[in-house]
Protein 1
Amino acid sequence: MMRNLLTSLALLGFSAATFAADAVAQTEKQATNWHAIIMFCIFVALTMGITYWAASRTKSTSDFYTAGGGITGFQNGLAIAGDYMSAATLLGLTAMVYTQGYDGYIYMLCFFAGWPIILFLMAERLRNLGKFTFSDITAYRLDQGKVRTMAAISSLTVVCFYLIAQMVGAGQLIKLLFGLEYNVAIFAVGILMMVYVTFGGMVATTWVQIIKAVMLLSGGTLVMVLAMSQFGFSFTTLLEKATSVHKLGDKLMYPGSLLKDPVTAISLGLGLMFGTAGLPHILMRFFTVTDAKEARKSVLYASGFVAYFFNVIFLMGLAGILIVGQNPEFFEGGTIGGKLIGGGNMVAMHLAKAVGGNMLLGFLAAVAFATILAVVSGLALAGASAISHDIYARVIMKGQASEATEIRVSKIATICLGAVAIVLGILFEKQNIAFMVGLAFGVAAAANFPVLILSMYWRGLTTRGALLGGYGGLISAVLFVLFSKSVWVDVLGNAAPLFPYTQPALFAMPVAFLLAFIGSKTDSTARGKTDLEGFDDQWVRAQTGFGAASAANH
Amino acid sequence: MSTEMYQRMKANPKFQDLVARRSRFAWTLAFIVLAMFYGFVLVVAFNPTSLGQPIAEGSRWTVGVTAELLMFIFFWVLTAVYVKRANTEFDALNQEIIKEAWKDKK
């Protein structure tokens, strides 16, 4: 029983593996929350309207995958923030600050620090080289069929693990916030996602993400301001009061147990930073803007929103210690310090209720649901594009597929992915899936990122090197997680883990880079020679953007 | 046709200049972020208690909170600095290179 909520929430977007063990709680179905349901229905009605409008503008493959490349930097920045910040950001991290204090803040910095790196080293090249998927870049001068198949497999692996985590988390969360049955919640999320993506493609997905980001930012800010007003807007007062009542006392502001050994700390930092730079649904967003200029602006806005919101969360968590943690109304049986009603992840929700009543609680619950929808839609679109654009159009049809059939295939792929997500969501309901997001980030960091960055920066990368590095990173990331405590012990029930660390990145990333290096250096095939010759043109295009996929007028 | 254009751009000294300047700038900024971030991670791993100290006698602000808040702000400022320079200076140079490559063609 005591397994799922915190874990699954954490999972909604985070590498929960490290705090899975101590942060698990099963959700209980709550009374139906009408405020939340009404506000959520308004959100669904609005986004359905947008989807209807978007459907009429989604005709070509470019419309479907990248909204015609006509999104502005500001819009895309909001959409990236909406794609990146999941319900776990709002609920999981608020709860983490509430219980662990400063540790939560460290985590947030890890999730943020990847963004400047993405800007400096990747953003403009992604836009200049890519068209619909990041495999367009890895396969640019390499063997199309083989490299795209590899990139599509690792993309789909990331998408599937991330989807399972999101779906299970969504089911638990909605059961808790809205008082709906788990299965009803899973079907609702799965079906809404299919409708957004199949009818509206990237245009609808982008707007769902933008609206959600605005709701999340404004809802969080409102709660934070109302909460801070109780402390005269003084951070010092807040800290003083929080440390005086918290059971950790002054230790609240010390790094605690989460990052206790150096290997885990560094591996986590690597995994989160480079995992972010290898997530297919995030990378895909860079192809929706007009040019490299707008791609850079996207990161500027996105990272600004993310950094701002993480600091809001930190204040919400600290304020929660006093406003929620000292109010018997929010504890089961009314005993302060006992079990929070609804489980540990309800801190943000209780805080909303305490400072803004049922209306604000309803709004924040609707925000959480909208958040899940926005993230799963982005994932589904990234997965569908790997199937239809990479595997169907480029590998199977060798570029001969018509746009109409390619779109049809991607719609079928979206529906299949939606169905898979619903089935897996139901199958995994009672499982401890703490490792899933860790695995998704691990695979993204070890399989997607190394090949992607090498293909852009290293002339010497050949098809053979890319395949070895990509598959090697994928397999090693999966095996490291499989043999770690979070799967080998917690899921499979063995006595001791075969691999002592929960974070794979520090080990799997070097494997990928090394294999790619050796595979390329020892490659004396004719194909390898062609691969090297293609680098010059690719390099000039990456730098200047000349010949890059241009925007449609929208 | 594209290959021809790419070769002409590559031969342009301005292209070499652009690549050198932009790469140096991007890698310098990336290095600053990586050094600060992993430096911070190492402090968390090896000397966590130092982060819990108050920044001044009697203050509730700890070294850790202050350092992190500054990093959030500083990293974002660096992104703004990069975007500013890349979108004006570098992009202008870039446009010149493309224009000159077209002109050579005619």
Protein 2
Amino acid sequence: MIEIKNVTKKYGNKTALDNVSFTVNDGDIFAFIGHNGAGKTTLIKAIVGIHDFDDGDILIDGKSIKTDPVLCKKMMAFVPDNPETYEHMKAIDYINFICDMYDVDNDTREKNIKKYATLFEMQDKLNDTIDSYSHGMKQKIVLISALAHDPKILIMDEPFVGLDPKAVFDIKKILNEMVKEKKIVFYSTHILDVAEKLCSRVAIIKNGKLVKSGSMKEIKGDKSLEKVFMELEEK
Amino acid sequence: MKKLHSLIKACMTSDMNLFKIKAKKGKKSSIAVVLFITLCLMFTIWSNANILFEKLSPMHLQSVVLSFFVFLTSVLLIVEGIYKAGPLIFNCKDDQLLLSLPIKRRTVLFVRIFKFYIFELLFNSLFIIPLIIAYIRWAEVLDWTFFLTSFIMIFTLPIIPIIISCVIGAIIFGFSSHFKHKSIIQIVVSIVFLVVALYLSFTVQNIFNYIAENAETINNSITKIYYPAGIYASLAIKFNILDLLVFILINISLFSISIFVLSKFYFKINSRLKNVTTSKKTNIEDLKIKSNSITKALIKKELNTFLRTPVLIINSGFALVLFIIISIITVIKFDSLIPIISDQNGLNLSKDLIMNNLSIVILILISITSYMTSITNSLISLEGRSIVILKSLPIKVKTILMSKIYTCLLITTPVLVIGDIILFIKFKTNIFESILLIILSVLIPLVSHFIGLLINLKHPKLDAENSTEVVKQSTSSFISVMLGMILLVLSIGIVIKLATLMNSILVLVISVVIYILIDSILYWILTNKGVKEFNQLSI
């Protein structure tokens, strides 16, 4: 479970996150939506321990990211919006590096690398250096390395950007499998129709403040998610 | 013209952050440090110019100093320019953006060369302004024409070195662009230039003496070889407006012709450099899937970064290569080196003192190499945007920082130990002293590695356009190199003082104790304050 409790983050005088609180339960596919600059990436980076925050706390299965960062990070995998990797490394070396950081044993990593590399059609390209890849291929490598250590919680920032339709389809399948295993998927997106179909819960953020949070049914009612979002934006 | 102005402004902004007037509080102190060190450097150049003027003014040959300094500065500009030509001209990251804009390709090239010119102009001013100030003191005739000539010279002298650097850069990058392992070719070719520069720096003392003895002949040669050097000296003695106008015209013409010629094949080289070769399709069953411990995996990653960054290898490898060369030269020609060491200004070392303290000589060599080898001052900045990977990993920050230190030790220790062994064999150093010196070969570089990393954590440059900007132009590398120099002078002074008071074994023992103490303090600072600085890093 992820518990976000009264999180506030300021950049100088600007409040990027203003007393944000909500909970993500085991087995949720949680969509986190908002306009550009609303504070989505700031909160995601706070959850995965990249950014500090000024007030409040974030608990991962009851452990605070502030006081137990290593333990919390061990449960999570993070896929950033821009696929950051070590470009000079071969893809297989990069994935191995990430697995080393998560103490993944040889059998598990071999099984998972083969499974996800084949799924994303990257199995014959893993021996190339990442700088030779397209944006979408880099994103696939980040996804393979994130999934290779069987994370309990998958946090993604705009995961579908730059991916081909087949890869998007495959990711959706993987996310549904994870949910069946009571794992958590938390991701930010602008593609509202995908979020509407895929996610069980949703939170909407506007100018650093949480304006709505709950189950997809509660939030949208009879309307489409896009309509609800546009109405909130116009307020 | 408006387009060109906007383009220049956009391209210069990121590079000129250091010189922004509206600096943040934290930045003000680093600007003060940079200014102070710049003034120290200019003072040293002014002092050296005065020494030469003093030697040559009785013979009324002050103009020789002008031509010699212009020539020397131009050589330095060319060497420095070869380093900079890579990131500023040939390996630019903004190719995609600029080439998609509705502007002429020649304009893009002009803007890049202009940016290069501004850097070389600043570098040139460091040498030429102190020279002008020194000349004012020694000139026999001085009027407004000298100041006009000097003012124009400051702006025109970098032009020819830039053209030469671009041509050499085009050869290096054009040649390497044909190969799969481009960076290795660039390292090899750059090392060839480095060795030549090394040889020149070894012979600089002889050059000074030779100039004093053969001033007129040298002047004639320099002015014949290098036109700007000759014209400056001749205009300083006898001003002629026509000569000055011809000189300006020549520079402008050369600059325009170079841009025209370079634009013919520049974009071909650039696109070839960006071609990345991919290996043959591999079978997933044949892939190397192997686990490592966290520290080993981090060290492998750091070594990979080091080996893929030619400018870092060349920059940090300089002192290490020098140490091995000096060790070998010592074995071959030690007897002829003794008078050189004992004659050094201000040291007053007798031959007996040197012969009785050979282990101290090794200690000094280890110190020089260690303080001149600062790899860590760039390792945080080189992470760039991928710092988010490290920050999201489930590992302690202390482990990340220490892996960077271990990597640097892995690079420096083997080289220092090899050099040590060569010197131990030559000097027949006893076992106890040898062990102490080997320990110091780890402890002294450790100080340099800790300090470099702490400075880089304090002054990171995560948004750099390329590795040269990090390694050669960042505040972190500048401060750590200068601090290294200060520590080097301090440590050598203390060691020499101690050597005159006690025997060499005691000096080595005291050094080991002091360095263990310093390293422990720096370790504590890194694992406490350094960790906090790392946590605050963001991009």
